[in-house]
């Protein structure tokens, strides 16, 4: 059995699964239930200054549903904790005392002034919590007041706040980044420059779920009006993975520890984040949709996966896929893939055919000897993976690399030599022998 | 009665109500969405190819999924104006649902029939007319028979701007939908409401109680109208060709099925304790299952060949068996056994081992060995229709050998004796008639 114990910034947890700072970690009651269920850690819902903020008394959440009303995307306009600071601090202290083996991090959001950090950081640390997470990510409500993503969108503010926090903190400090930017690296670098020990990402994305088709107003709405909220859930995972990988592979940020967040629902999602550079992962939406019991599959599935790969600990998986992420310009243009349809698995739905015919390269035939039959035309197939993507049967269509012979589409011989855009003759800025 | 046990009220009202409950209850809105989600939206969908009326099935299912029920109903009804009834009575297990690609790996097709019902129920219930008539052409077409073929033809003609007069011998229009379908397949007055929906487009005149060969003749119709469509179905019933067939206790299954459909109180219908049904088609299944549902103690369906050859699908056979009907194959009736003035049983001979016989006691014997065209309706008019295997021969446009005369439904050769095929015949004939009338 692989060891799921994780050490992140010196903070130990029995597994890498933490609950993200969000409604599930707003109270001792919830966190207790989570730890009883087996969660490795929790980031307490963001604390702010007293008096606490207030929430709307209408809908806070909206969902985008897939088949069978599965929640694919989730949005919220809930603000940071709306309970008095003293109550939260007391509960945090008690939880840490009751669950010493679990990671307990406290999320915090404070105004852009040193005095606030000087006042509140020691109070929070005094609870015995293992670390702090700075919420520079919430894109709704708090950002209008100059906090949350209003900080996270300006690298100088990130650096300044992180520095203030580090000045007064003895425990590790994690900066939680907003994805509502065009490039995650300046934010990550600013966190490093401010002295942060780690980053966590992503926070939620600015979003409007839809309109109410009867009332023709934004939906959900409070008294007929609504505001953009933070988007999360399975739909945002690819955005999160990209940002995590960018930090993990950039030379100057590669050593910055990462706690990965964004749409993690089952253990495979965790593998994505860990292999792309995160050391722990944080979960919110899946727990809010299914309850804390999902931890069973997360832990069990990850453990079995690590065993199957011959890894003895979670740390061996971390960063495993990072070297495979590169810039487009370095992709091997000599490599040729062709789609292949397994006729034994094919159910004859024809979706690959119509997708390719209508929107791609007309590289799939629909009949053979007058009968319904779908097959790839290698002479037309550009290896784009569209058919694989739309096929409803897992494993029915696969991409197969050509290892020899001639590509029937281009007439060019397959070569093992690599060649990329940087040297391609069509590239006006290509490197030539004289550049070398 | 001399010992025969035939009486009403074998079961309580509650038991009968339960036995005649909807065979396939409608989907709830959530069930419909979940099932619609299972549709893969296939290219050149096999289900559509398998549908005799060619309904764009993935298209209507996608509209259910998007909450566009009215558009979904329009997609269905534009190809099959009786989409509501077909959703209830089509043998989907051998048509669209058999073709569903979901069968390949999971043997569980999308429930197309129930989804079709879900999409069409509201428009028929609320009589929401989805089709408009084209500008009037001033042409009038005579339609003989107010069943699925005739009504489908009339509706399409009305859409195209023609006037249709439907001559129906019975009191109520609807044909087999009204009189011939097992009561548990379509509850309440759906058949009548669907007819009302079809007539609601306007331009269709219904003359009930008007029979060909009695009140009108084909010659007159050809002389008086711009075109004629024959959709009079199979009014004759095949006999066993045995002695005593006219005795009490021997009945035509179709007559009893009609009586059952029209009965205001099924508990008052007389039913035998031991019932023997001779035949292997849908009519045999319907009468056998319904006899059982009315309280018959023992119902045996006897067919001259094997289960594989039965016209009733395997699904229907299993349905009958789970309802307690016994199936006996490879047997043909040799003799009706008589007790005084009524039947008391049937002697059968094995068709697989000739000479071997056995006897089944019966209080009632139902004949369900097929129906035939009632040719006497056309007798003496001098109008000579080409006949093929005892049915009217038609071409692919449903034209008969007589100019200006089209035909469709069960009375034509080459059909499948299904409501859905009759609707398609009527539609194709109407399109052909329209081209003919416009001189195209």
How would the blueprint of this fold be written?
The complex is a heterodimer of chains A (436) and B (440).
Chain A: E1 6-8, E2 11-13, E3 17-19, H1 28-37, E4 41-47, E5 61-65, E6 71-76, H2 85-98, E7 103-108, H3 114-125, E8 131-135, H4 149-152, H5 155-168, E9 173-176, H6 184-193, E10 198-201, E11 205-207, E12 210-212, E13 217-219, E14 229-232, H7 237-249, E15 258-261, H8 267-275, E16 280-283, H9 285-290, H10 295-309, H11 314-317, E17 337-341, H12 351-359, E18 364-368, E19 371-376, H13 386-390, E20 397-401
Parallel strand pairs in A: 3-4, 3-16, 4-7, 7-8, 8-9, 9-10, 10-15, 15-16
Antiparallel strand pairs in A: 1-2, 5-6, 6-14, 11-14, 12-13, 17-20, 18-19
Helix pairs in contact in A: 3-5, 5-6, 8-10
Chain B: E1 6-7, H1 13-19, H2 29-37, H3 46-50, H4 57-65, H5 69-77, H6 83-89, H7 96-99, H8 103-106, H9 112-125, E2 140-144, H10 148-159, E3 163-168, H11 176-179, H12 190-199, E4 204-208, H13 218-224, E5 227-230, E6 236-237, E7 250-252, H14 253-262, E8 271-272, E9 274-278, H15 282-293, E10 298-302, H16 314-322, E11 326-328, E12 331-339, E13 342-350, E14 357-361, E15 364-367, E16 371-372, E17 387-388, E18 391-392, E19 405-407, H17 419-437
Parallel strand pairs in B: 2-3, 2-5, 3-4, 5-19, 7-15, 9-10, 9-15, 10-11
Antiparallel strand pairs in B: 1-8, 6-16, 12-13, 13-14, 17-18
């Amino acid at each position: 059995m692989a060891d799921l114990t994780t050490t992140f910034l010196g903070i130990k947890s029995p597994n890498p699964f933490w609950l993200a700072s969000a409604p599930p970690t707003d109270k001792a009651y919830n966190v207790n239930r989570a730890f009883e269920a087996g969660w490795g850690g929790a980031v307490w819902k963001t604390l702010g200054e007293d008096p606490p903020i207030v929430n709307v008394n209408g809908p806070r959440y909206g969902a985008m549903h897939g088949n069978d009303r599965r929640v694919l995307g989730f949005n919220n306009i809930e603000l940071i904790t709306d309970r008095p600071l003293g109550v939260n601090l007391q509960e945090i202290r008690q939880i840490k005392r009751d669950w010493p083996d679990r990671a307990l991090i406290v999320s915090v959001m404070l105004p852009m002034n040193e005095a606030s950090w000087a006042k509140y950081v020691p109070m929070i640390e005094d609870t015995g919590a293992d670390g702090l997470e700075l919420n520079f990510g919430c894109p709704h409500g708090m950002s209008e007041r100059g906090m949350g993503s209003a900080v996270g969108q300006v690298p100088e503010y990130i650096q300044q706040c992180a520095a203030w926090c580090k000045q007064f903190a003895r425990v590790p400090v994690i900066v939680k980044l907003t994805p509502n930017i065009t490039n995650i690296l300046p934010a990550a670098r600013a966190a490093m420059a401010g002295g942060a020990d780690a980053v966590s990402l992503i926070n939620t994305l600015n979003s409007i779920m839809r309109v109410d088709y009867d009332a023709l107003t934004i939906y959900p709405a409070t008294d007929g009006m609504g505001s953009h909220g933070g988007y999360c859930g399975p739909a945002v995972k690819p955005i999160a993975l990209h940002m995590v990988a960018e930090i993990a592979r950039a030379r100057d940020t590669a050593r910055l520890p990462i706690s990965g967040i964004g749409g993690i629902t089952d253990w495979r999602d965790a593998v994505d984040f860990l292999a792309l550079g995160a050391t722990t992962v944080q979960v919110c939406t899946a727990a809010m949709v299914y309850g804390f019991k999902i931890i069973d599959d997360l832990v069990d599935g990850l453990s079995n996966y690590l065993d199957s790969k011959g890894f003895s600990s979670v740390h061996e998986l971390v960063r495993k896929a990072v070297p495979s992420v590169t810039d487009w310009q370095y992709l091997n243009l000599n490599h040729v893939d062709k789609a292949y349809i397994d006729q034994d698995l094919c159910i004859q739905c024809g979706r690959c055919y119509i997708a390719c015919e209508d929107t791609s390269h007309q590289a799939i035939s629909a009949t053979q000897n007058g009968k319904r039959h779908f097959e790839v035309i290698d002479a037309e197939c550009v290896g784009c993976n569209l058919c694989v993507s739309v096929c409803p049967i897992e494993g029915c269509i696969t991409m197969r690399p050509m290892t020899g012979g001639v590509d029937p589409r281009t007439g060019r011989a397959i070569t093992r030599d690599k060649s990329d855009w940087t040297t391609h003759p069509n590239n006006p800025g290509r490197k030539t022998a004289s550049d070398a | 009665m001399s010992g025969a046990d035939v009486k009403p009220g074998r079961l309580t009202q509650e038991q009968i109500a339960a036995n005649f409950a909807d065979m396939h209850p409608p989907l709830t809105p959530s069930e419909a969405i979940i099932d619609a989600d299972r549709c893969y939206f296939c290219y050149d969908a096999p289900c559509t190819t398998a549908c005799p009326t060619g309904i764009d099935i993935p298209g209507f299912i996608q509209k259910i999924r998007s909450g566009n029920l009215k558009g979904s109903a329009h997609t269905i009804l534009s190809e099959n104006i009786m989409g509501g009834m077909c959703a209830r009575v089509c043998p989907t297990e051998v048509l669209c649902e058999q073709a569903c690609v979901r069968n390949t790996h999971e043997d569980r097709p999308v429930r197309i029939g129930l989804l079709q019902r879900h999409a069409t129920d509201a428009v028929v219930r609320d009589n929401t007319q989805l089709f408009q008539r084209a500008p009037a052409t001033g042409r009038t077409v005579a339609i003989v028979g107010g069943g699925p073929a005739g009504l489908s033809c009339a509706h399409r003609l009305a859409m195209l701007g023609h006037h249709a007069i439907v001559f129906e011998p019975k009191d109520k229009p609807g044909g087999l939908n009204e009189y011939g379908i097992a009561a548990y397949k379509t509850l309440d007055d759906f058949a009548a409401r669907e007819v009302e929906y079809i007539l609601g487009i306007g331009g269709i005149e219904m003359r009930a109680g008007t029979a060909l060969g009695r009140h009108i003749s084909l010659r007159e119709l050809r002389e008086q109208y711009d075109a004629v469509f024959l959709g009079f179905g199979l009014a004759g019933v095949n006999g066993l060709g045995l002695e005593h067939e006219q005795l009490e206790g021997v009945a035509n299954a179709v007559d009893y099925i009609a009586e059952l459909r029209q009965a205001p109180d099924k508990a008052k219908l007389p039913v035998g304790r031991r019932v023997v049904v001779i035949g292997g088609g849908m009519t045999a299944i319907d009468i056998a299952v319904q006899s059982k549902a009315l309280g018959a103690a023992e119902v045996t369906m006897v067919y001259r060949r094997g289960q594989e050859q039965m016209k009733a699908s395997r699904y229907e056979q299993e349905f009958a068996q789970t309802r307690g009907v016994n199936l006996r194959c490879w047997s043909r009736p040799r003799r009706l056994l008589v007790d005084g003035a009524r039947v008391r049983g049937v002697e059968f001979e094995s068709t697989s081992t000739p000479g071997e016989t056995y006897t089944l006691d019966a209080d009632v014997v139902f004949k369900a060995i097929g129906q035939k065209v009632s040719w006497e309706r056309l007798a003496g008019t001098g109008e000579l229709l080409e006949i093929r295997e005892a049915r009217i021969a038609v071409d692919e446009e449903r034209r008969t050998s007589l100019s200006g005369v089209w035909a469709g439904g069960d009375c034509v050769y080459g059909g499948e004796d299904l409501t859905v095929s009759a609707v398609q015949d009527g539609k194709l004939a109407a399109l052909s008639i329209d081209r003919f009338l416009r001189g195209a």
